[in-house]
Design brief:
Length: 349
């Protein structure tokens, strides 16, 4: 597959295929499992994902070799950043082997992991040695009671904090801490999270509660907007905006004027960023989604296991991305309220 000059403003050597809105393909999110040991209400509510829920059979999951092949093709299409997600990705055995495959792929310059942190302490060093560059830990509260309620879990908060410390010791800093703020549940602990991040040298990212999937009972009245978050943080610590480090960043970045780090705001509901979205998502069974809110994915597993060569796989993915016209968050409203959407745990966020 031919390689030519780089894309203007991008960070990859090869040109990225572009969709119908001229958005390049730069970022790939791979879900390695739909299983999770938490039952966060905004993602996997227990009344839907209970003890009788049928998770994906192991035989249906893409193997690490199949995922590695996909990454090579996506890299040739312009992807330079890969994020591994779930479910909870550390429930998939031997994840460091996949990290190594991805990190050694020509053109991939950034390999990241999103995790709930509960198993991170036992894996941080091996993941770093395998080539992981960065880790993002979901952390919705520092109050043990609120933490347990948000995650609907018996996993103690201390295990997640130990995982964050282990990741820092392994050299995966700065660690990003993702917090979904939900009105009436955890917004009162925002400033505690700010101080925790500042003290630890971490980057807090506050995410507006989104209508991902159809099971989380999303209500716009529960959304704590990024504007509210910014007002609260700025009232305690003077801040200034920071320019995006690369095209397509989803977080609006802010720096503390006292020099003690920065934080980010992800405003999918109040300030959609569809126009700059450069992310593709592949599920654990090999379905390609071109939007977090897309109604349907496109089957890549059938191609992988059907014997097609890399050129045919390249052409199929390029055609899917080239036809992309998604902008759900810009359209969010009456026209989208009843649209079918995949669950966050299946798609990987």
């Amino acid at each position: 597959m031919a390689q030519t000059s780089g894309d203007a403003g991008g960070d990859a050597i090869r040109p990225a295929v572009r969709d119908r809105r001229a958005r390049p393909l730069r970022d790939l999110r791979i879900s390695v499992t739909d299983r999770c040991n938490f039952r966060c209400g905004y993602c996997m509510p227990r009344d839907v994902f209970g003890p009788d829920h049928a998770f994906l059979p192991r035989s249906e999951l893409l193997s690490y070799e199949e995922l590695g092949r996909l990454v090579r093709v996506f890299a040739d299409l312009g992807v330079s950043k890969v994020r591994l997600t779930g479910g909870e990705p550390l429930l998939r055995r031997g994840l460091d082997a996949l990290v190594s495959l991805v990190a050694s792929t020509p053109g991939i310059t950034d390999v990241a992991l999103t995790t709930n942190g509960s198993l991170l302490a036992g894996h941080a060093q091996s993941l770093r040695h395998a080539g992981l560059h960065r880790v993002t830990v979901s952390l919705d509260s520092l109050d043990p009671t609120v933490f347990a309620a948000m995650g609907d879990t018996k996993v103690p908060l201390s295990k997640v904090l130990d995982g964050i410390a282990a990741a820092a010791d392994a050299g995966l800093s700065p660690i990003k801490l993702n917090t979904v703020l939900r009105r009436g549940m955890n917004e009162a602990g925002l400033l505690d999270l700010v101080e925790f991040a500042r003290d630890g040298g971490h980057v807090l990212r506050c995410i507006e509660y989104m209508d991902v999937g159809n099971s989380n009972g999303w209500d716009r009245s529960e959304v704590v907007t990024s504007a509210e978050v910014l007002d609260q943080i700025a009232a305690m610590h003077p801040v200034e905006p920071v320019a995006a480090a690369r095209p397509g960043e989803v977080a609006q970045r802010w720096r503390f004027l006292d020099g003690r780090g920065e934080f980010g705001l992800i405003s999918s509901v109040s300030t959609p960023f569809c126009s700059t979205c450069t992310r593709a998502r592949v599920t654990a069974v090999g379905e390609l989604y071109t939007c977090l809110f897309a109604a349907h994915g496109r089957d890549l597993r059938g191609l992988l296991r059907g014997g097609v060569d890399d050129d045919a796989l390249h052409a199929a993915i390029a055609a899917i991305w080239g036809a992309r016209d998604d902008r759900y968050s810009e359209l969010r409203g009456l026209s989208t309220v009843d649209l079918p959407k995949p669950e966050m745990s299946y798609l990987g966020g």
